[in-house]
Write a structure and sequence with these properties.
16 helices
Length: 532
């Protein structure tokens, strides 16, 4: 086989035979490296409730062995037809989708799936009952398994709304832009994408919801304005480049759209340091994306949370992994941010519905002050963070649950820590007390002190006992309550700045301090904190 790269004509209509060939090569030649074994907990997860039958043009219930294609697209400002409780029976009738105002992108995806010989398509707006809160929450928390179990995901990268369509599916929807230069020995074609990364600046690449849809898909079919790309864990192809017989595609250094994303995520359990790095990278990248509704802040990250929890046998609490909870509490924005005071619907253990605020200690409770310039989120700080506090959380059943973190072998010479970590008291509230508490409240004993501090411009960071400075060097000088929530191996304590409302503490920022200096604080006290 040759390593030479041949060119191909990219016609006005997409080459569905080529797409079928890419899929066939992937299924028959790439092996487990391209379709890895899922963690057992994810393997047992149910398939989607509904899929679109592109032959019958209606919704059908998805069987356990259902082979389906998923769609990732931008809703934008288009009027997206939705699956509701009121029309669910009608949508399951054969031919029902033919006469409905289905957006062009979804309709083109149905046409494409049928053209390549597949039968089922999953699309969020039609396959989830949008006004059924219980189903909506159930499906959203399983986005990880929905996209990772899809045969492949169609990415509509070229449009800014659900009505943009998939270029090349319908006649007249894509221009043929290649030019040819003929020689006696053959002919040359002009290149459509010299560096095929042209989707990085598109609306699709900037939306928060599409982040997890790309990260979690094992195979993707990307529709750009000029051509179609295929990317899986073993290969990358495009309409204009004949790469099918190239032995070593990685050696070609072709930067295919979003290809790096799949390499972040492994299907094997990770070591603690790897887990910290992966979580931090994914969350920081996610928070650079844009959301139309702040109420979706956690929902659009739930698929990533589901996969990470399955891989690591972990539990996530309001976007923070339990095994890394102290580390994850160290998040910090570089750039202006403020509490968004978003409230989200929660279904309790007995089916009761509550609307509760996202806790202030979660990164999801904070948003950029200027939507055009999202601040950079450091998802955790310091790979050597040691858990020194026992955190307990009020869950959706209004029960107090201890958050189980990875244990760490602490450094010897603990005499300093012992001087601020009181052994008693450590008694938690009675079941009656916390059953009346807000879902998401944290209860824990820790060290608290009121300290003179300077708040830094452009973020929620504080400097304790700041030295004299020129006017306006700091945002403000305050006397602030701080609590210990973690400890680095070099004896630096991580602190949260808190404010009080009705006896409940709320995060306002963070700081750090040498452990020896903290021990010398005169007004330091050991206290049970309720952090909302």
């Amino acid at each position: 086989m040759s390593d030479a790269i041949g060119g191909r004509y990219v016609l006005a209509q997409v080459n569905t035979h080529l797409i079928r060939a890419w899929l066939h090569q992937c299924e028959t030649k790439h092996g487990k490296g391209c379709w890895p074994a899922f963690p057992l907990s994810l393997e047992r997860t149910r398939v989607p409730t509904f899929v679109i039958d592109v032959i019958r043009w209606c919704l059908v219930h998805c069987s356990s062995q259902c082979r389906y294609v998923a769609l990732s697209y931008v809703w934008g400002k288009a009027a997206v037809y939705k699956h509701l409780r009121e029309n669910t029976q009608d949508l399951q009738k054969t031919g029902s989708l033919l006469s409905l105002p289905i957006p062009a992108t979804i309709r083109d995806a149905m046409t494409l799936v049928h053209a390549i010989g597949e039968r089922y398509l999953w699309v969020d707006s039609l396959c989830i009952i949008q006004n059924d809160l219980e189903m909506l929450q159930s499906e959203i928390t399983r986005m990880g398994s929905i996209y990772s179990k899809a045969l492949f995901t169609i990415i509509a990268a070229s449009g800014d709304s659900a009505d943009s369509g998939l270029p090349g599916v319908e006649r007249g929807s894509r221009e043929q832009v290649q030019k040819t230069l003929k020689f006696a020995e053959g002919e040359l074609l002009t290149v459509i994408d010299l560096i095929p990364s042209g989707i990085d600046g598109t609306p699709w690449a900037q939306r928060a919801w599409t982040f997890q849809e790309r990260i979690l898909s094992n195979r993707v079919l990307v529709f750009s304005a000029g051509q179609v790309y295929w990317s899986c864990r073993a290969a990358a192809h495009s309409e204009e480049r004949a790469l099918e017989e190239v032995r070593n595609i990685r050696r070609l250094h072709l930067s295919f759209p979003q290809r790096y994303a799949t390499e972040f995520l492994s299907w094997e359990p990770l070591q603690p340091s790897e887990y910290r790095l992966l979580y931090s990278d994914l969350l920081s990248s996610y928070r650079q994306r844009h959301l139309s509704y702040q109420t979706d802040m956690l929902n659009a990250f739930n698929g990533v949370s589901e996969i990470l929890a399955a891989l690591q046998d972990d539990t996530f609490f309001w976007g923070l992994p339990g095994l890394l909870f102290s580390y994850a509490m160290a998040w910090d924005f570089i750039g202006n941010s403020a509490r968004n005071h978003v409230r989200v619907p929660i279904i309790g253990s007995k089916g009761s519905k509550e609307t509760v605020p996202i806790p202030s200690w979660s990164w999801a409770a904070w948003s950029e002050e200027n939507s055009n310039h999202p601040p950079y989120l450091r998802a955790g700080e310091g790979s050597d963070m040691r858990p020194v506090i026992d955190f307990n959380i009020v869950d959706t059943k209004h029960q107090l649950v201890k958050i189980k973190e990875w244990s760490w072998q602490d450094h010897p010479d603990n005499d300093i820590s012992a001087s601020w970590q009181e052994r008693e008291p450590r008694q938690l509230p009675s079941p009656t007390q916390y059953s009346l508490s807000q879902i998401g409240y944290l209860y824990f004993w820790t060290s608290l002190a009121n300290v003179r501090a300077a708040r830094i411009w452009g973020g929620g960071k504080y400097i304790l006992s700041p030295p004299p400075s020129p006017p306006n060097f700091y945002r403000e000088i305050v006397h602030q309550d701080f609590i210990v929530i973690g400890r680095y191996s070099d004896r630096i304590l991580l602190l949260l700045a808190i404010e009080w409302r009705d006896g409940i503490a709320y995060r306002t920022g963070s700081a750090d301090i040498d452990e020896r200096k903290w021990v010398q604080m005169e007004n330091r006290q050991w206290r049970l904190i309720t952090l909302g």
